[in-house]
């Protein structure tokens, strides 16, 4: 229970009608979760306008309503609070209701098109190994000092997020590492939170269905850094074309990491193989178990962040050296007989796919073939489909286009869009098989000893969403099954 007047602290108010000396039992942005004593915040969404559920919320027991424009008469006995932007208010209110958890924990946010899960997970593992109790908010899972909580989003809605952060504080966590998706910045899921630091990994093509243009997508990510306080640090990949722009208007202390230019945290790759990365990090030579140039960037981001958080450089490098990344990111198994390397990776953007295939190319020792199985998600950015199709064909010997999560779309239509941009040479390399299991089976049957198979797009996911139903599906499990079935 919290007093309404207390949880409205720092909310930009337009008008209040009713009693604010009122006990609130919980705060909700979804009318379906409203109970007796709730505060309901009406949010204009992408699909529907939450204001149309105000009456329903009141009939379920809401005692106070936060809104922008009222589509109805006010009910007597209910307090109505008008604000300019209810999504912003939702973040601030949730933060107040749950005891301002970000004030009691060192909260570090990671944003960028690719690498967020990897960086946040590495930080969580590193700080846990260094002896701290930590929290993690990520695409793969959320964690509170070792306890796993299933994730539904990369960055949950403001209320779920503050519930998680409060649980971390209650558990005695000193640090929380979280992914900040562009949707979360745009929808203000992070409003009200006070970050101790922010990390930028990179920005390339994704989510243009949602943001409309690349400039809007950049603006959304930059918004995260613009809002950081002067007490925070902001660390950016200065090799990315937008790395500097991201920090242009931040009040936070600025730091850079790089493999190519002068930077606060400078790395140089000495060796890059399936055994890992041999690198110089500033003046230290270190071996990491993680593979590929893109992970060299992720490791530098983690190293820089740990130093910004006051950790000892040598301790950090020693601990990081042994670390592995997140599940389903360049996760590989070698077939028992024919030594085929099967890699499961979450590359679901053109840039991620290109990076993974470039890494594979560098790992090749001879004439082994690269066979890629890839699809594109339904109800997501359609413009990335032909580009991903093209990238897969340009950097593989053979390609099988298949379904990712078709969601509400027709799988054959998605495949047709992936095929649309292919030139004649590329057309000779690919075949489309909509059934993902059959596609993986075909790839395994095509593979010769020591070939490299890349199964891209779904990484850690344990399901395939078709027509609103999530069926169990695990790329790694299917790959193992096919190696066995086909005697590879
Ligand atoms: C496109 C998008 O981001 N949608 C998110 C958004 O939903 P929305 O705006 O469509 O909400 P809506 O359905 O229009 O409803 C508007 C409001 O009315 C409320 N409502 C609705 C129905 C009702 O009966 N009663 C009611 O009160 C809703 O709770 C909401 O507050 O707000 C919801 C609540 O926060 C999110 O769950 C939902 O995520 C959907 C499920 C989703 O798939 N999002 C993906 C695209 C996403 O967020 N991805 C990012 C990035 C992924 C990455 O890492 O690349 C992520 O952070 O996960
Ligand atoms: N720093 C990086 N630069 C480019 N590509 C990367 C980088 N790190 C990882 N990748 C590639 O992107 C994929 C996704 O990585 P990761 O899950 O860490 O990113 P993410 O930003 O969390 O993605 P999402 O937005 O879907 O949550 C990996 O499987 C890998 O193929
Ligand atoms: N967080 C990303 C994940 C995409 C993963 C891919 N497997 C897909 O379903 O498109 C999204 O929701 O757009
Ligand atoms: Mg992620």
From TrEMBL:
<feature type="binding site">
    <location>
        <position position="31"/>
    </location>
    <ligand>
        <name>UDP-N-acetyl-alpha-D-muramoyl-L-alanyl-D-glutamate</name>
    </ligand>
</feature>
<keyword id="KW-0963">Cytoplasm</keyword>
<dbReference type="GO" id="GO:0009252">
    <property type="term" value="P:peptidoglycan biosynthetic process"/>
</dbReference>
<feature type="short sequence motif" description="Meso-diaminopimelate recognition motif">
    <location>
        <begin position="404"/>
        <end position="407"/>
    </location>
</feature>
<feature type="binding site">
    <location>
        <position position="181"/>
    </location>
    <ligand>
        <name>UDP-N-acetyl-alpha-D-muramoyl-L-alanyl-D-glutamate</name>
    </ligand>
</feature>
<comment type="pathway">
    <text>Cell wall biogenesis; peptidoglycan biosynthesis.</text>
</comment>
<keyword id="KW-0131">Cell cycle</keyword>
<dbReference type="GO" id="GO:0000287">
    <property type="term" value="F:magnesium ion binding"/>
</dbReference>
<keyword id="KW-0961">Cell wall biogenesis/degradation</keyword>
<dbReference type="InterPro" id="IPR013221">
    <property type="entry name" value="Mur_ligase_cen"/>
</dbReference>
<dbReference type="InterPro" id="IPR036565">
    <property type="entry name" value="Mur-like_cat_sf"/>
</dbReference>
<keyword id="KW-0132">Cell division</keyword>
<comment type="similarity">
    <text>Belongs to the MurCDEF family. MurE subfamily.</text>
</comment>
<feature type="binding site">
    <location>
        <position position="189"/>
    </location>
    <ligand>
        <name>UDP-N-acetyl-alpha-D-muramoyl-L-alanyl-D-glutamate</name>
    </ligand>
</feature>
<dbReference type="GO" id="GO:0071555">
    <property type="term" value="P:cell wall organization"/>
</dbReference>
<dbReference type="InterPro" id="IPR036615">
    <property type="entry name" value="Mur_ligase_C_dom_sf"/>
</dbReference>
<protein>
    <recommendedName>
        <fullName>UDP-N-acetylmuramoyl-L-alanyl-D-glutamate--2,6-diaminopimelate ligase</fullName>
        <ecNumber>6.3.2.13</ecNumber>
    </recommendedName>
</protein>
<dbReference type="GO" id="GO:0005524">
    <property type="term" value="F:ATP binding"/>
</dbReference>
<keyword id="KW-0067">ATP-binding</keyword>
<dbReference type="InterPro" id="IPR000713">
    <property type="entry name" value="Mur_ligase_N"/>
</dbReference>
<feature type="modified residue" description="N6-carboxylysine">
    <location>
        <position position="221"/>
    </location>
</feature>
<dbReference type="GO" id="GO:0008360">
    <property type="term" value="P:regulation of cell shape"/>
</dbReference>
<dbReference type="GO" id="GO:0051301">
    <property type="term" value="P:cell division"/>
</dbReference>
<keyword id="KW-0436">Ligase</keyword>
<dbReference type="GO" id="GO:0008765">
    <property type="term" value="F:UDP-N-acetylmuramoylalanyl-D-glutamate-2,6-diaminopimelate ligase activity"/>
</dbReference>
<dbReference type="GO" id="GO:0005737">
    <property type="term" value="C:cytoplasm"/>
</dbReference>
<keyword id="KW-0460">Magnesium</keyword>
<feature type="binding site">
    <location>
        <position position="380"/>
    </location>
    <ligand>
        <name>meso-2,6-diaminopimelate</name>
    </ligand>
</feature>
<comment type="function">
    <text>Catalyzes the addition of meso-diaminopimelic acid to the nucleotide precursor UDP-N-acetylmuramoyl-L-alanyl-D-glutamate (UMAG) in the biosynthesis of bacterial cell-wall peptidoglycan.</text>
</comment>
<feature type="binding site">
    <location>
        <begin position="154"/>
        <end position="155"/>
    </location>
    <ligand>
        <name>UDP-N-acetyl-alpha-D-muramoyl-L-alanyl-D-glutamate</name>
    </ligand>
</feature>
<keyword id="KW-0573">Peptidoglycan synthesis</keyword>
<feature type="domain" description="Mur ligase central">
    <location>
        <begin position="110"/>
        <end position="305"/>
    </location>
</feature>
<dbReference type="InterPro" id="IPR035911">
    <property type="entry name" value="MurE/MurF_N"/>
</dbReference>
<dbReference type="InterPro" id="IPR004101">
    <property type="entry name" value="Mur_ligase_C"/>
</dbReference>
<dbReference type="Pfam" id="PF02875">
    <property type="entry name" value="Mur_ligase_C"/>
</dbReference>
<feature type="domain" description="Mur ligase N-terminal catalytic">
    <location>
        <begin position="24"/>
        <end position="71"/>
    </location>
</feature>
<keyword id="KW-0133">Cell shape</keyword>
<feature type="binding site">
    <location>
        <position position="461"/>
    </location>
    <ligand>
        <name>meso-2,6-diaminopimelate</name>
    </ligand>
</feature>
<feature type="binding site">
    <location>
        <position position="457"/>
    </location>
    <ligand>
        <name>meso-2,6-diaminopimelate</name>
    </ligand>
</feature>
<feature type="binding site">
    <location>
        <position position="187"/>
    </location>
    <ligand>
        <name>UDP-N-acetyl-alpha-D-muramoyl-L-alanyl-D-glutamate</name>
    </ligand>
</feature>
<feature type="domain" description="Mur ligase C-terminal">
    <location>
        <begin position="328"/>
        <end position="459"/>
    </location>
</feature>
<dbReference type="Pfam" id="PF08245">
    <property type="entry name" value="Mur_ligase_M"/>
</dbReference>
């Amino acid at each position: 229970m919290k007093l309404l007047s207390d949880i409205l602290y720092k909310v930009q108010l337009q008008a209040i009608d009713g009693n604010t000396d009122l006990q609130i039992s919980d705060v909700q942005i979804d009318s379906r979760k409203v109970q007796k004593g709730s505060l309901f915040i009406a949010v204009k969404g992408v699909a529907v306008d939450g204001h149309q559920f105000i009456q329903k919320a009141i009939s379920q027991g809401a005692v106070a309503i936060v809104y922008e424009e009222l589509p109805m008469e006010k009910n007597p006995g209910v307090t109505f609070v008008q604000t300019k932007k209810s999504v912003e208010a939702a973040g601030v209110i949730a933060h107040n209701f749950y005891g301002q958890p970000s004030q009691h924990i060192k909260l570090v946010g990671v944003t960028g098109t690719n690498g967020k899960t990897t960086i946040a997970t590495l930080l969580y593992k590193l700080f846990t190994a260094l002896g701290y109790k930590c929290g993690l908010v990520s695409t793969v899972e959320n964690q509170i000092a070792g306890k796993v909580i299933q994730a539904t989003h990369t960055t949950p809605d403001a209320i779920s997020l503050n519930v998680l952060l409060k649980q971390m504080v209650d558990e005695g966590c000193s640090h929380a590492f979280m992914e900040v998706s562009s949707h979360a910045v745009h929808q203000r899921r992070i409003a009200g939170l006070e970050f101790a630091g922010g990390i930028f990994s990179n920005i390339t093509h994704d989510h243009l269905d949602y943001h409309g243009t690349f400039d809007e997508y950049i603006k959304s990510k930059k918004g995260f850094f613009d809002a950081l306080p002067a007490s925070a640090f902001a660390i950016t990949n200065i090799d990315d074309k937008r790395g500097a722009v991201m920090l242009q208007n931040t009040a936070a202390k600025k730091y850079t990491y790089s493999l190519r230019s002068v930077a606060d945290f400078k790395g140089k790759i000495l060796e890059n193989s399936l055994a890992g990365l041999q690198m110089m990090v500033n003046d230290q030579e270190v071996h990491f178990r993680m593979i590929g140039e893109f992970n060299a960037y992720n490791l530098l981001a983690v190293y820089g962040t740990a130093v910004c958080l006051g950790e000892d450089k040598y301790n950090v490098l020693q601990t990081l050296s042994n670390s592995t990344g997140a599940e389903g990111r360049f996760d590989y198994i070698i077939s028992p007989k024919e030594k085929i390397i099967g890699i499961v990776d979450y590359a679901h953007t053109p840039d991620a796919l290109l990076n993974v295939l470039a890494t594979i190319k560098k790992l090749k020792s001879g004439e082994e073939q690269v066979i890629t199985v890839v699809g594109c998600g339904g109800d997501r950015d359609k413009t990335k489909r032909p580009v991903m199709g093209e990238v897969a064909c340009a950097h593989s010997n053979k390609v099988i286009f298949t379904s990712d999560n078709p969601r509400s779309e027709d799988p054959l239509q998605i495949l047709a869009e992936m095929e649309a941009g292919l030139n004649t040479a590329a057309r000779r390399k690919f075949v489309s098989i909509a059934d993902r299991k059959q596609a993986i089976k075909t790839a395994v049957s095509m593979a010769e000893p020591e070939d490299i198979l890349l199964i891209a797009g779904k990484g850690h996911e344990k399901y395939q969403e078709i027509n609103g139903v999530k069926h169990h599906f695990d790329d790694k499990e299917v790959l193992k099954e096919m190696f066995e079935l086909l005697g590879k």
